[in-house]
Design a protein that fits this description.
This protein is an alpha/beta fold. The protein is built from 13 helices and 11 strands. It is globular.
Length: 327
């Protein structure tokens, strides 16, 4: 007798069909195309991650995984869509540090709760940030930058892709630990920020490794340190901020992960975790992501859940100390 038969019999005699339900759901899943919601426009690193993984996930699940770009409101629109979706595994979310861990600290009210409304599946990638400086700034190390900032409070500037961005809070975390005062200059995106840094309108920038590498290799910028907990694969010679300064608690990892709506059956979450890990092991996936400065970092659902909670607490503290808010 198959699982469908058990469910039918359970329903007819009034017993709890849920006992037989989960195996049936797991065996049949997925039954239709899967919608992968991305909170940013096509072409960016988050979109590239989704479109690199989606074909492999489609092959393994035997159903098409369709990337659905839903930008706006710093990613909050996309999160709300998934939070309100049916918890059947057919709507997934490519969540990011900015949407899930930083936005709760910046907005007084959000249409979703990062912990309550989602079921973590796996961390996918980590994105190294890097502190870069214009050649005209007479510093070659992080300690020299900190010393100059202490000598000239408020005189040095650092650019980011916007208020509340991972780069912004990475800069604020450094300011807090080093007890320095640098002026934050937010831009509407990383491209205009990088353009002004190259033009010498700002002194430094908290950028992503992928956008900085070409300018470091050409000598147009100086790389002082990466903001992640480990050195970036693309720039193994550049130390971490923690290594360079001795601030062992400094860590500002930009990450993306896969989540489903809360209450999605555990069997489906487990299946998706297994298939995602298999996809992330594919050489072509790893190489394509690494070309964008994205390093694969698969996890268990429990590990992702714990990490997300710790990140929410961490960035809430940094945002509060920096007075960063989005109205």
């Amino acid at each position: 007798m198959n699982c469908k038969s058990y469910v039918l019999i359970g329903a007819l005699i009034g017993t709890t069909a849920g006992i037989a339900g989960p195996p049936a759901v797991a065996a049949e899943y997925p039954t239709k195309p899967i919608r992968l919601v991305v909170g940013f426009p096509a072409g960016g690193a988050v979109d590239v991650t989704a479109r690199t993984i989606a074909p492999h996930l489609s092959d393994r699940l035997k159903q098409q995984v369709v990337v659905d770009n839903r930008g706006g409101a710093h990613g909050n629109i996309s999160a709300e869509i998934v939070a309100r979706a049916e918890p059947d595994g057919h709507t997934l979310f490519l969540g990011t540090i900015s949407i899930l861990a930083i936005n709760p600290a910046l907005y007084k009210k959000l249409p979703f709760d990062s912990v309550r409304d989602f079921a973590p599946i796996s961390i996918l990638v980590s994105v190294s940030g890097i502190v870069v400086a214009h050649p005209s700034l007479k510093v070659g190390t992080m300690n020299e930058l900190i010393a100059l900032a202490r000598a000239k409070p408020g005189a040095l500037t650092y650019a980011t892709s916007g208020t509340g961005s991972p780069g912004h809070l990475a800069g604020e975390l450094l300011k807090t630990l080093a007890k320095i005062d640098m002026l934050h200059v937010p831009y509407k995106g990383g491209a205009p920020a990088m353009a002004d840094l190259l033009g010498g309108q700002v002194n430094t920038m908290f950028a992503t490794v992928s956008t900085a590498v070409p300018h470091l290799k050409s000598g147009k910028l100086k790389g002082l340190a990466v903001t992640s907990s480990r050195r970036a694969a693309a720039l193994p010679e550049v130390p971490t901020v923690a290594e360079a300064t001795g601030f062992r608690s400094y860590e500002a990892n930009n990450w993306y992960g896969m989540l489903a709506p809360a209450q999605t059956p555990a069997a489906i979450i487990g299946r998706l975790n297994t298939e995602l890990h298999a996809a992330l092991k594919q050489p072509d996936v790893r190489s394509k992501l690494l070309a964008q400065g994205l390093e694969t970092s698969p996890s268990t659902p429990a590990e992702f859940s714990a990490y997300l909670k710790s990140e929410i607490v961490k960035w809430a503290r940094v945002a509060k100390e920096a007075g960063a808010r989005v109205e």
